[in-house]
Design brief:
It is built from four helices and no strands. It has 89 residues and is mainly alpha-helical. The chain has a domain of 60 residues: Protein of unknown function DUF1040 (Conserved Hypothetical Protein Ylqf, Chain: A, domain 2, Orthogonal Bundle).
Length: 89
């Protein structure tokens, strides 16, 4: 994991864990994994899963995932024209 990802994960994890300080770190990570719908072994849980879950935790279920909103187009025609390079940003 790159340093910026470690820092991002810690910045997201710290305030969330403080709200549930009665849990130890592994219990809290297990809770996050279950909330995210992950049912595999905890050691195989990716940092991406934790980062995106922590970013979206408590957000409206219809809200776009961070990083995907920039690619969102209101209508299909505009998306096709932009993808073909006819419409420039």
């Amino acid at each position: 994991m790159k340093y910026h990802r470690v820092n991002e994960l810690i910045e997201l994890l710290h305030p969330a864990w403080q709200k549930e300080s009665e849990l130890n770190l592994l219990q809290f990570l297990q809770k996050l994994a279950q909330e995210a719908g992950y049912d595999g072994d905890l050691f195989a849980l990716s940092d991406d899963t934790l980062i995106y879950h922590l970013k979206m935790r408590g957000a409206d279920k219809t809200q776009a995932i961070p990083g995907l909103q920039k690619d969102y187009e209101e209508d299909f025609k505009t998306a096709i024209l932009r993808a073909r390079g006819i419409i420039k940003d």
